[in-house]
Amino acid sequence: MDIIGKRGETLVDYAFAKGFSLPNTLNILYSQLTMSDDVEEMFQNLTFSELALARDLFSELENIYLRRVEDAEMSLFREKEEKDQRLATYFGFLEYFSQIALGVRLGKINFQDFSIYSLDSISNVSRFERSLIASDSSYLQSDINLRKKGQLGTSDVEIATIVQHPTSQYIYKNHTNWR
């Protein structure tokens, strides 16, 4: 409620609003990240549902780009493989830290007793929240499915979305060896 009080009650300003594509959803998530090395502070402007959705999306995007890198290792497309590797690293970083932030918000973990059980239960919460936000026929899920099938050359689209926001650009540059 504090977050909604600060950001306002306009539903389309939140990543959990139905009907968004993946780039729209990521734009909203990135716009609310705070430049900080503190995990809780970095994600403080996201609602619980947005944080849960973010963790699940970042995990899925990391896996998609890791698969692309594996598939591209035998190809001549070295530049594309490097972009995909950087994106996999970027989404892995965001997935890991959003998972920690979500766990802290759930009261499931603290930094002293970080456990596999906690990670599994956090993943379940993320998947459940995402299922409430994005149905199988949603634009968001359609975008994810196209990326899984490799039907979109989306590396440049993902990077363009990232660099629109100072915090996501900072994370991308500092955690992926991007020049």
Structure notes:
This protein has helices spanning 2-7, 22-31, 39-42, 48-72, 78-106, 116-133, 139-148, 155-162, 166-175. It is globular and about 45 Å long. By secondary structure, it is an all-alpha fold.
Helical amount among residues, as a percent range? Answer: 55-70%
Mind telling me the C-alpha Rg? 16 Å
Percentage beta strand: under 5%
Dominant shape: globular
Count of alpha and pi helical runs: 9
- End-to-end Cα distance, whole Å, is 39 Å
Topology readout:
Layout: H1 2-7, H2 22-31, H3 39-42, H4 48-72, H5 78-106, H6 116-133, H7 139-148, H8 155-162, H9 166-175
Produce a short descriptive summary.
The chain has 179 residues and is mainly α. The protein has 9 helices and no strands.
Name its key features.
9 helices; globular; mainly alpha; 179 residues; 67% helix
